[in-house]
Specification:
mainly beta, 7-stranded antiparallel beta sheet, 33 strands, globular, protease, Streptogrisin_prodomain
């Protein structure tokens, strides 16, 4: 059977080729003697991206090119400084004009290190890890948030966590923050007329259809399929392309909590490392390096075409009517129903898939996206790039202790080769549901081989995932799908904190998990 070019990539026209070699622009407060050259790149920026940036950020084409070059330099610089500063790193952001990289430091002695690489140090009281811990407390109390509370996010520029409340509901926002037990000085309440909602059930970009009814947008191609928004479908749901030809099946989905999904396509569809530009062509995707707060980002969909803006905050929580979703990226890009699930890019780097938002493209708004690297890592997926070479997501950080609020558990000595023998845990699972073991907690190992086996309920299909804590989140390091009622996995792992995750694909009932670790 001839393989045909994938035609249902309902994603944004926002990919740019890598920029040409440049020198670092002059930053406010920079000592010219410390000025360094930005990393070299090779390809020209896609003209569609320049046009969109020029329109939405009021830039000339030359300014748009310079901004993209600066942002690429800033991404690498932030990654380097974050590792060097450790607990003193307070976050980073680009200035409003996109030329100044600000880096917050909790220890004034670290300011010289920041200045030396061409960035501007900003003295703050809290490191970003402390801010993330405050937000985690709010996340834990999220079920107590009223509809008057639209969400909350970390604002690194203000060195605080922001709770967003509806106009006139500031008191509700304050009560929610106080009830969570977070330090009063670490949280501020702001009001905004935002009512975030998932953008689904209307075609976006080159649409795909779910069960011949709902419509969403393809995000990014991965080996074997594509990623999209979790609220678009559940495991087992069937998809068809924009041409109504049978396309694939939802293999995994998470919403609320997260907002991601994975669709496995059939042999008639070929995933391509490109994004539809909605102007008769495509632009390339060449990786998934994460852009910093303040960087430009573009989104596209069939309802509103290509729209650009800047990244306002990361690790944002949104209180949708369907439930709370955390770990999203907040932007000032507009979107409307029909844009859901589509792609976000910064330059030629994949950033995420559209989750939901508030407002529209007439009066403006706020839109959130689910970071793509989390989707890739949690599902052991490989991004398809324009040059035909699969690209794995950037590696996570080293193994560090999970938050103190999560108590470790010692894994029982189960027989991981026989699920009917001495088992570690039992639980109930259903299609579209996931359960963390042991008992919603984690365990530590000193390194070496890990083995596990799940006996699925009769007639059911499950996925067994082994996840490792990487400093800010658990990431999937091994994965197995059940066959003939059993899912088995083995992995040679370094020392660290781990947990198992059982995901239901079809059917329902009680399962048993046996595992061993050293």
């Amino acid at each position: 059977m001839d393989r045909r070019r994938m035609t249902a990539i309902a994603v944004l026209v926002a990919a740019a080729g890598t920029a040409a070699a440049v020198t670092l622009p002059s930053f406010a407060g920079e000592n010219p003697a410390t000025r360094r050259a930005a990393p070299a790149a090779s390809d020209a920026v896609a003209p569609e991206v320049l046009d969109a940036l020029s329109r939405d950020l009021s830039l000339t084409r030359d300014q748009a090119v310079r901004r993209l070059k600066t942002e690429r330099w800033a991404s690498g610089t932030v990654a380097k400084l974050r590792g060097e500063l450790g607990a003193d790193y307070g976050g980073s952001w680009l200035g409003a004009d996109g030329t100044t990289l600000n880096v917050a430091v909790a220890d004034p002695a670290q300011a010289a290190r920041v200045t030396a690489v061409g960035a501007v140090p900003k003295r703050v009281d809290r490191g970003v890890a402390e801010l993330d811990a405050v937000k985690t407390r709010l996340d834990a109390a999220g079920g107590e948030a009223t509809p008057d509370v639209a969400g909350w996010y970390v604002d690194v520029a203000a060195n605080s966590v922001v709770v967003v409340a509806q106009p006139g509901a500031e008191a509700a926002g304050r009560r929610f923050a106080q009830a969570s037990g977070v330090p009063a000085g670490a949280v501020r309440v702001r009001t905004a007329d935002e009512a975030p909602r998932p953008l689904f059930d209307v075609r976006g970009g080159d649409a795909y259809f779910i069960n011949d009814a709902g419509r969403c947008s393809v995000g990014f191609s991965v080996v074997g399929g594509f990623v999209t928004a979790g609220h678009c479908g559940r495991p087992g749901d069937r998809t068809a392309g924009a041409n109504r030809v049978a396309q694939g099946t939802f293999a995994a989905s998470s919403f609320p909590g997260d907002d991601w999904a994975v669709v496995e396509v059939n042999g008639q569809w070929t995933p391509q490392g490109v994004v539809n530009d909605f102007n008769g062509g495509t632009v390339p995707v060449n990786g998934s390096t994460e852009a910093p707060v303040g960087a430009s980002v573009c989104r596209s969909g069939s309802t509103t075409g290509t729209r650009c803006g800047v990244i306002q905050a990361k690790n944002a929580t949104v209180n949708y009517p369907e439930g709370t979703v955390t770990g999203l990226t907040r932007t000032n890009v507009c979107a409307e129903p029909g844009d859901s699930g589509g792609a976000w890019l910064s330059g030629d780097q994949a950033q995420g898939v559209t989750s939901g938002g508030s407002g529209d493209c007439t009066r403006g708004g706020v839109t959130f996206f689910q970071p793509v690297n989390e989707i890739l890592q949690r599902n052991n997926l490989t991004l398809v790039t324009a040059n035909g070479q699969p690209s794995a997501p950037p590696a996570g950080g080293g193994a560090t202790a999970p938050p103190a609020s999560t108590a470790p558990a010692t894994p029982p000595a189960g027989d991981a080769t026989d699920c009917t023998g001495q088992v570690g845990r039992t639980g109930r699972i259903a299609a579209g549901r996931a359960q963390v073991q042991p008992d919603g907690r984690f365990f530590r190992v000193s390194g070496g081989a890990q083995e596990a086996c799940v006996s699925a309920p009769e007639g059911a299909r499950v996925v067994l995932e082994l996840q490792r804590f990487t400093g800010s989140a658990f990431r999937t390091v091994a994965r197995a799908t059940s066959a003939d009622g059993l899912a088995r996995l083995t992995a040679d792992t370094p020392a660290g904190a781990y947990r198992y995750r059982v995901v239901g694909l079809a059917g329902a009932g009680e399962y048993t998990l046996a595992f061993s670790a050293r």
